Amino acid sequence: MKTYPIELRRRVLDAIEKRLGTQEQIATTFSVSAIWIRKLLHRKRQTGSIEPLPRTQGRKPAFKGSDLMQLNDFVKKHPDATLEEIKEHFCGKVKCSLVAIHHTLKRLGWRYKKKRYEPVSKTEKM
What we know:
- This protein is mainly alpha-helical.
- Among the domains are: 6-47; 66-108.
- It contains seven helices and no strands.
- Helix 1 packs antiparallel against helix 2 and helix 2 (23-30) packs across helix 3.
């Protein structure tokens, strides 16, 4: 769900300060919920800010900062290393799954290139 714009937050607070109606009436006017207005007022009292909270959803990356650079350098030096070997190399620093390593390598731009299989013809076998 998207956060409400700061301009809407200011207009709602202006309406409340000017006592243009109850919180429920103002909520209906601005197409927001009365609970959202209460939370906005509470947040303004507690922090003095009406800015939206930063988004903190999702899992944090296993490799970040210097560990990310070390992973990139390791793959440059050992381009044929398997995910398991990479995991063993970083076992003391980073605790993660093979899938996390795969996604991190993908994020860094590393791709797995398969060798092209060319079948041998029957005449070459003889």
